[in-house]
Design goal:
Farnesyl Diphosphate Synthase, single chain, mainly alpha, globular
Length: about 350
């Protein structure tokens, strides 16, 4: 079966060409900011090339992924900016990006996430008839994502529960994925009802992908979420379902985990409890089934629909394993975000 990774290998050069063209549209006098944006893009490379998502959605509707290449560029630009700004917010300090100074990187991130995606929509591949609607999606998506990010930053760990975390995830990750899938459907000429169903799919997929990233943070041993005090879905499950004594211990470990490796290890051990992970897997399965149900209702080109089904299955995999008795969790370096 051809996967989204295969599609990216085939079309990555075209995507990068659209990204470079969008940057160049800032004009001949913007040499310094073009250089800074290019440096930020070079520094921020993604392990999972989800930029092809709008191309696959477009192909489900039309059989052709290539016309949506400018939307893949929008995805790359938006997430490059969002990830840098997220690192800055989490670290509460200077964040370097390659050779760029922190202030240069911050300015580059703002430009990469705001005007350059709009410039990407000036691509000749974008039909004039839908350009305005696509630009409106970018603006509205940015607002929704900022709302979700603020909810995440203001989350009260003591009052954390599943519903509040999902509400934050729906904004910070669900909104940008809903934005890009809706944009692909608009560009494909889909009717309003299908555009909204694609928006629903992007929203669910974005939540799944955020939870996938949460798991990867633990598996990597970086434990950035604990070091940053982030309230993840798994943490909310542990706090909501634990006994008063277990909740109290986890809250103390979570508070100390910002600066202490041993506290990060203690909190991680609590999150890798076998019964907790079993419930976590069941709840992820509900989200996976919802995404598959939406795809089944949408139907379309079978080859590209299968790619999306594969992406959903990958995003919803339970990658965490219960911690064995007397084993220790990787704690990372005290006080460091790696």
């Amino acid at each position: 079966m051809t996967t989204y990774l295969d599609l990216h290998r085939e079309l990555s050069a075209d995507i990068q060409s659209e990204v470079r063209a969008a940057v160049e549209r800032m004009g001949p006098s913007a040499t310094a900011i073009k250089s800074a944006v290019t440096g930020l893009l070079r520094h921020r490379q993604f392990a999972y090339p989800l930029a092809v998502l709008p191309m696959i959605v477009h192909a489900v509707e039309t059989g052709e992924p290539e016309p949506a290449t400018p939307l893949a560029a929008v995805h790359v630009l938006w997430w490059t900016s969002a990830c840098h700004l997220d690192d800055l917010a989490d670290g509460q300090g200077a964040v370097h990006a390659g050779d760029l100074r922190p202030d240069e990187a911050l300015l580059a991130a703002v430009v990469t996430g705001l005007p350059v995606p709009v410039l990407a929509l000036r691509s000749p591949r974008i039909p004039e008839a839908v350009r305005g609607a696509l630009m409106a999606e970018v603006v509205n998506g940015m607002i929704a994502a900022a709302e979700g990010q603020l909810r995440d930053l203001r989350a009260d760990v003591g009052g954390a529960d599943r519903e509040r975390v999902i509400a934050a995830y729906r904004g910070k990750s669900g909104a940008p994925f809903a934005m890009i899938t809706a944009m692909a459907a608009i560009m494909a000429g889909a009717p309003t009802e299908r555009i909204e169903r694609w928006r629903d799919f992007g929203d669910v997929f974005g939540i799944l992908w955020q939870i996938f990233n949460d798991q990867e943070d633990i598996l990597s041993g970086r434990h950035e979420d604990l070091a940053n005090g982030t309230v993840t879905y798994l943490l909310a499950c542990a706090l909501q379902d634990g006994s008063p004594a277990e909740k109290s211990r986890l809250l103390r470990a979570h508070a100390a985990a910002r600066t202490t490796g041993s506290a990060r290890a203690e909190a991680t051990a609590a999150l890798l409890d076998a019964s907790l992970l079993q419930r976590f897997a069941e709840e992820l399965g509900v989200l996976r089934d919802e995404a598959h149900k939406l795809l089944c209702e949408l139907s379309g080109d079978g080859t590209y629909l299968a790619m999306l089904q594969h992406m959903v299955d990958e995003a919803s995999r339970i990658r965490l394993k219960p911690m064995l008795p007397n084993s220790s969790a990787p704690s990372g370096s005290d006080g460091q975000k790696e």
